[in-house]
Design brief:
alpha+beta, nine-stranded antiparallel β-sheet, four-stranded antiparallel β-sheet, 6 helices, 13 strands, binds 2-oxoglutaric acid
Amino acid sequence: MSNVMHELSPDAFERDGYLVVRGLVDRPSVDEMRETVLRALDPLEGPAELEVDVGYPGAPEGRDAVGGSTPRRLLHAYSRGPVFRRWATAPELASTLRSLMREDRIELSQCHHNCVMTKHPGFSSSTAWHQDIRYWSFDAPELVSVWLALGPEREENGALQVIPGSHRLDLDRGRFDRHLFLRPELAENRRLIANASLVELEAGDALLFHCRLFHAAGKNVSGEAKLSAVFTYHAGGNRPIPGTRSDRYPSVAI
Ligand SMILES: O=C(O)CCC(=O)C(=O)O
């Protein structure tokens, strides 16, 4: 696995399905976000998703088991304080997204991601290879997520891995399990996964990635929680399908 630094260009994004923007957010804003998150973790301020709710490999057995109350995501990050709102709708971010998505009107979805991932040592689970679009319902599978590191992200604390260019693949249904994760027992999937690239980030760096890009992450085996704020954007003309989970809350024009 390599750790690749990307050029900030729409062509590179189109080719690879992701890019890394170093130092997208300044240190004081990162610190403010961290403080907001740490306050919301103890005592836990909902809405939140727990590791047991997700039930991925490595998650505690149940709510009564040791680590059973470990949060995995603080939901509704956009509504968790002005620092998140400011950053998620910042003109510089909007302009980067307009350029990468080659669209004039960009909106933030309040229905997808819109969370702070809180990967805790000891009780965090790993996430198998998947595309985020699997559970999202829009006119077109063209959304971009911005994953902002609020601290260092490395293999040992469960940094994301991505498969460059995989957003352009059209795989048969048989390549996926019932939860739409890639089936690791298939040789053709193993060959694909062998191209994975680890995305190491520092606090304030962001990974921008296409909703069809295959990605995965390991457990956090370090001594400290890994915190990452994640927001998802779509073009103004790409509407959520009425009545679906993607249409539950209105998007926010940025
Ligand atoms: O941090 C992780 O385990 C991966 C999270 C992820 O890929 C997702 O929520 O789509």
